[in-house]
Specification:
Blueprint: H1 55-63, H2 71-110, H3 115-152, H4 170-177, H5 180-206, H6 208-214, H7 219-260, H8 264-275, H9 278-299, E1 305-308, E2 313-318, E3 328-334, H10 336-347, E4 352-354, H11 356-365, H12 377-394
Parallel strand pairs: 1-4
Antiparallel strand pairs: 1-2, 2-3
Helix pairs in contact: 2-3, 2-7, 5-7
Length: 395
């Protein structure tokens, strides 16, 4: 049996697909990465802390002592201040101590060590010690206070002194021990140890010929030269640590800002706590409006006349004939409120008079409870005269 003839291939694409696909092959499914045909719920991101902290949260954290602060910066500033004061006043302090020892040695060799003499020596020793240490302590205290104030400002709080039972939780302690914060502190400590170890090594390596020549000097000049080398080495170490401390302060500030960030939901909750729930406030305002409306409607039967637009505006005026004060607006409303005012007025026999220009002017210029302005005296007087004539005719 002969085989059927094979149709020649045509480059023309059949409807529904490219030329190399069969016509009956269904179109490929949409890519899984496409979100065009899928719901996209933005609430899944509502809990992410992406918003800067509010002033209220910052103030609460400040009262708890939770601030961006680098302990390394405090320590390095104190060390730098101490070494600078020693470098500046070191010769003076050494001279005072030398004079005191010279005085003690000469006194013990020439005078008898009685109880009175020992008391004098001890009191003088305390005085010399105070004179030597007072400048150093004052500078160190000022440096410590200045470093803290520059970082966190003036703050007096006792919250960090109260015991926190969460710190006794072993699970939380283990989590803190294995946290990125602990790892970062470990890396920072190792780096500082390496720096502090390298600077003395480099100093000893470069100053080795000088150390060998110190053996040939007298004790006092040798000690002075050695002290200068040691002070120079200490200043180098402190300056390097100061740079690291500034970097640590920047890192602490960045981490503090990241930890202080809030989610949109937290900001909304804080706003509700500070300002009140908007729904509750709206209900309170609606209730206040209803109470004010009822009070206003209760004044309509006491009105002298109701001026209308005629359908959109109604203004109730009250005036006692012979009264020296100007007429006063006791009720006002538009649309349904205006219809209600007119209905109550008719039920209690209050005249309802149509005067479109006057009604619009009263609605724009006067509030409920206010007297009419002088510009409307003439127009209102005509209305009141009409009302009084109506009353006289009815009587």
């Amino acid at each position: 049996m002969p085989h059927p003839a094979i149709a020649p291939w045509s480059p023309v694409a059949p409807a529904g697909g490219p030329a190399f696909l069969p016509a009956l092959l269904p179109p490929p499914p949409p890519s899984r990465l496409s979100v065009a045909d899928r719901p996209f719920d933005l609430q899944m991101f509502a809990g992410e802390k992406t918003e800067p902290a509010t002033e209220k949260r910052r103030e609460e954290a400040r009262q708890r002592g939770n601030l961006a602060k680098s302990q390394d910066l405090d320590s390095v500033v104190v060390m730098l201040a101490g070494f600078l004061i020693l470098q500046s006043f070191g010769p003076t302090l050494v001279g005072m101590i030398g004079e005191y020892f010279h005085y003690v040695l000469s006194s013990t060799l020439t005078t008898e060590l009685t109880a009175g003499n020992v008391f004098i020596l001890v009191s003088q020793m305390l005085l010399v010690t105070a004179k030597c240490l007072a400048p150093v302590f004052v500078v160190i205290i000022l440096a410590a206070v200045t470093a803290n104030v520059l970082q966190v400002g003036f703050l007096l709080t006792f919250d960090p002194l109260f015991p926190d039972l969460e710190r006794l939780n072993p699970v939380a302690g283990l989590e803190n021990l294995l946290s990125w914060k602990s790892i970062g502190e470990l890396v920072k400590s190792i780096f500082k140890i390496m720096v502090v170890a390298y600077v003395p090594y480099a100093t000893l390596r470069d100053q080795m010929p000088t150390f060998l020549r110190l053996i040939q000097l007298e004790p006092l000049p040798g000690m002075i030269a050695l002290a200068r080398i040691l002070f120079a080495m200490a200043i180098k170490i402190i300056l390097i640590l100061l740079v690291l401390a500034f970097a640590d302060y920047w890192f602490q500030w960045w981490r503090y800002e990241e930890n202080m960030k809030m989610s949109k939901e937290e900001i909304k909750e804080e706003y509700k706590q500070r300002e009140g729930d908007p729904k509750v406030k709206a209900k309170i305002r609606e209730r206040q409006r209803r109470i004010a409306t009822r009070r206003m409607m209760a004044e309509v039967p006491k009105a002298t006349v109701v001026v209308t637009n005629p359908t959109h505006i109604a203004v109730a005026l009250q005036y006692q004939q012979g009264d020296s004060s100007a007429p006063r607006v006791v009720a006002m409303g538009t649309e349904l409120m205006a219809q209600k005012i007119k209905e109550i007025a008719r039920q209690h026999g209050v005249p309802v008079i149509e005067n479109k220009p006057l009604a619009q002017a009263l609605f724009k210029m006067v509030d409920v409870g206010d007297e009419i302005p002088a510009d409307l005296y003439a127009a209102v007087a005509e209305i009141l005269a009409q009302v009084f004539r109506m009353r006289s005719a009815a009587a």
